[in-house]
Amino acid sequence: MIERLTEFMDNIRSFFKNIWLYRILAITCYLVATVLFFSPIDPNSTDLFPHFDKFAHCIVFFSLAGLTEFSLKNKSVWIILGLIFYGGAVEVLQGQFFNREASFLDLMADISGIAFFYLFLTKTKLSCFRSWVAAQ
């Protein structure tokens, strides 16, 4: 029984060490986020609480930063710059082509999400997880 449990835990560990898992999740997250950023939105549907839109941007970019960090080994500076560029491009394209409002505050929320992720990564034991994934 203990051998089966040990084997099961080893399989779980190897599954989460698989860098391709994070790459597939990151690509999927980018695709979903891009579709959502460029979809028409009903202004009344985002009134859950004031500035819900900014909170959503922060959460999306926190997630994108995390998945990208775990799928690319130790390229944090390039990830941060790439995500800021992606956020800026989304805002410009929203304002130009998709009949949505481009907002500097949305870009600031994007950058805040990225900053929160890296702050979380460096100030918690999650940094050990990054090293563990990067070692694969």
Descriptive report:
With 136 residues, this protein is mainly α. It has a domain at 52-136. Helix content is 79%, strand content 0%. It is built from 6 helices and no strands. Helix 2 (19-38) runs antiparallel to helix 3, helix 3 packs across helix 4 (76-97) and helix 4 packs antiparallel against helix 5. The longest helix is centred in the middle third of the chain and has 22 residues, at 76-97. It starts with a helix and ends with a helix. The model has no long low-confidence stretch (mean pLDDT 80).
Give average pLDDT, whole number.
80
Computed structural class: mainly alpha
Globally, the shape reads elongated
* Chain oligomer state: single chain
Percent in strands: under 5%
**Helix and strand pattern:** HHHHHH
Which ranges are low-confidence, i.e. pLDDT below 50, for 5 or more consecutive residues? Answer: none
- Cα separation of the termini: 29 Å
Cα Rg: 18 Å
Helix proportion: over 70%
Q: Give me the number of helical elements.
A: 6
Strand count, sense and closure of the main sheet? none
Number of strand elements: 0
Quick rundown:
With 136 residues, the protein is an all-alpha fold. It has helices spanning 2-17, 19-38, 52-71, 76-97, 104-123, 126-134.
Question: Could you outline the blueprint of secondary structure elements for this entry?
Answer:
Blueprint: H1 2-17, H2 19-38, H3 52-71, H4 76-97, H5 104-123, H6 126-134
List keywords for this structure.
136 residues, mainly alpha, elongated
